[in-house]
Amino acid sequence: MKKWCTLLLSFVLCFALGQNTFAVEVDFENQFSCGNTAILTATGKTAFVENVTKQYSDLKTLERQVTYDVDQVNSLMMEVAFAESQTIREMYLNKLEELGIYRYSLENCNTPTPMSDSHDIYFDNTEAYYSVQEKVWIITSSGRWRTEEWHNEKPATGGNVGCPDVFGVGFTNVSGKYNARVVRCYGVLRNGWDGEQRRARDTYNRGGGDGATGFYFKLQDSIEMVDTTNKRAALEDTYIGSEWFASCTYSDEFTEYSGIATGFYVHTWNKAVITGVELGVQDKTAGLVVKITNQSFSFPAYGSDVKF
Length: 308
Fold this sequence. Notes:
By secondary structure, the protein is α+β, with helices and mostly antiparallel strands. It has helices spanning 2-29, 33-36, 43-60, 70-81, 86-98; strands spanning 101-104, 107-108, 121-123, 127-131, 136-145, 159-160, 165-175, 182-190, 200-203, 214-219, 222-227, 235-240, 243-251, 258-268, 273-278, 289-293, 298-307.
């Protein structure tokens, strides 16, 4: 009898511990907690649009309206994302405002997010901008490697590292009807160097879907030799993938759409191959599911959840 009581007690303890572990796992994958604490509405975005439209209109009655092109906007937003100080960041935000593009402050939910096991990745905040001239919303996400661990993944002869990486933004816990359309998108991998040593690989083609669940890009990262002198004497490895930037522009109807936005990045090397990407999956971080063969040669990383 004593033996049976001991076994029964062990079973109860294991069951209880198993339930706790299961609960933690669910909470880890479903980061909607910040969305459940308040009703997400478009009221804030609507008021913001009205305010900045008037602000820009008043400004341009005194000055000549400045036009811009898409490449210029992408460049300025990347300068904001990768600015090395708040002063530099504010300088480029001011340049965007001169073009009628205003940053909309997103509330950070401060929920824990899974990073790579080696903590090699740093995520910038997901950002939202509104362009008064075009009457569009621009959602961006960016990040970078904080270490040079990519050296350990270098192929024997250099070149591509694994298969194309995936990065972008996922929307979850959405509210309001999605009537917006995607105007354009832009994704880029860079080596993080400036001047003649800068290397980049970019695309204007995003993954599938209508944009309601977010957007993503697939780009091939690689390690190349770069001349670090003007005399072409000293060569050094550079990683085209040490920085990434993702941007998607939505029509004005995006004002009525709200939810949680989460930046993500999935890195592969060696034999790993990404065979499928899906957004909008319930109870998954960023709503993201990525199918990978040889998954041990890969890792995902996520930015903080923000309300939009």
